[in-house]
Write a structure and sequence with these properties.
single chain, 80 residues, mainly alpha, flat
Amino acid sequence: MHKSEVCKSAVPCNFQAKLTLLLALVAVPINTVFGIVAAMQLTRNEFWGKTFVMSMLDLPFSISPVVTGTSFLLAYLHFV
């Protein structure tokens, strides 16, 4: 397979890989801190809207990835 067949983009493939790794290195610590703080607040304190916050945090686990993907596809189809 020729190199031009693997990466058919105006942006070089190595840039895409580096950008993906950079974003992962930034996103994982941010999500870890947010998750720990959210878990501590939800377990230690009672506050108004706690049920709503817990529902929003549980939503990705309860919705099928197929339904999520289909909704994104339908929502952004006119941009393609």
